[in-house]
């Protein structure tokens, strides 16, 4: 069973959060209140056809990371042609052709968090606020979202109410939650992005390193903050164009 925060449900219903909160309060959508926060029953929303489908069928985890590797070259110089999954399969002309076709037919960048959702499994968790600085230094974790955006030198994307995004291999996720006494909670301020173990083993991410800039932008196009969403979508558009130009020179 899937549950969403008011903000998450609002994005999926294409409504303002205040409107969704009112619908929940009036009993017009399947929701319940826990403490001071509302949670919305995602399965019931789907059954009632209340969710607006996002364009673009989700691509595989492998292709998601190939796309992100390719687009990242439009944001910063690629240190090596062997970086990421794309580099490892660069000799496969069919894989590269499919990648270019996917990008040519890609949905609007504002929907890329949905289109590339299989890059990792999202799990919102609660941890004590005092341990978040330790999470940021844990070699098993790779900061995403705002932290990775700023680390890439793309500027500042701080929102009024920030959430902390960390990518982690599926093989390490349970241990991380145990070590920091984390628990799955819809109101948690930490978003764990759990990468399939087979994919995590192929990514050239140094222990504790932030995720590539393109990944951070995809995180931010799903942000509750409208400014972050617009900025991330615009930068992704520019990166796609630049990456295509760089590829055409080789």
Describe this structure in words.
The protein is α+β, with helices and mostly antiparallel strands and about 250 residues long. Helix content is about 45%, strand content about 15%. The strands form 2 sheets. A 5-stranded mixed beta sheet has the order 5-6-8-4-7. The protein has a 3-stranded antiparallel beta sheet with strand order 1-3-2. The longest helix is centred in the last third of the chain and has 23 residues, at about 225-250. The radius of gyration is 18 Å and the shape is globular. The mean pLDDT is about 85.
Task: Briefly say what this structure is.
This protein has 250 residues and is α+β, with helices and mostly antiparallel strands. It has 13 helices and eight strands. The chain has two domains: 3-47; 61-248, no CATH class.
Features:
250 residues, alpha+beta, 2 domains, 5-stranded mixed β-sheet, 3-stranded antiparallel β-sheet, 8 strands, 46% helix, globular
């Amino acid at each position: 069973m899937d549950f969403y925060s008011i903000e998450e449900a609002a994005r999926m219903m294409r409504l303002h959060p205040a409107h969704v909160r009112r619908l929940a309060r009036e009993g017009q959508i399947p929701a319940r209140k826990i403490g001071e926060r509302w949670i919305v029953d995602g399965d019931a929303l789907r059954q009632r056809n209340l969710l607006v489908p996002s364009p673009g069928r989700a691509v595989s985890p492998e292709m998601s990371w190939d796309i992100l590797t390719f687009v990242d070259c439009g944001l910063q110089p690629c240190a090596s042609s062997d970086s990421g999954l794309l580099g490892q399969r660069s000799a496969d002309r069919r894989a590269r052709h499919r990648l270019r076709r996917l990008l040519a037919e890609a949905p609007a960048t504002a929907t890329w968090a949905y289109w590339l959702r299989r890059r990792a499994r999202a799990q919102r968790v609660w941890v004590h606020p005092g341990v978040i600085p330790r999470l940021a230094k844990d070699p098993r974790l790779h900061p995403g979202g705002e932290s990775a955006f700023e680390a890439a030198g793309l500027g500042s994307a701080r929102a009024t109410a920030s959430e902390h995004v960390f990518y982690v291999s599926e093989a390490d996720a349970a241990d991380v939650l145990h070590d920091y006494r984390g628990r799955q909670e819809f109101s948690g301020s930490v978003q764990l992005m759990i990468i399939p173990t087979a994919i995590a083993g192929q990514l050239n991410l140094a222990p504790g390193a932030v995720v590539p800039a393109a990944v951070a932008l995809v995180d931010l196009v799903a942000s509750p903050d409208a400014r972050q969403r617009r900025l991330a979508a615009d930068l992704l558009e520019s990166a796609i164009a630049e990456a295509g130009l760089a590829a055409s020179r080789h």
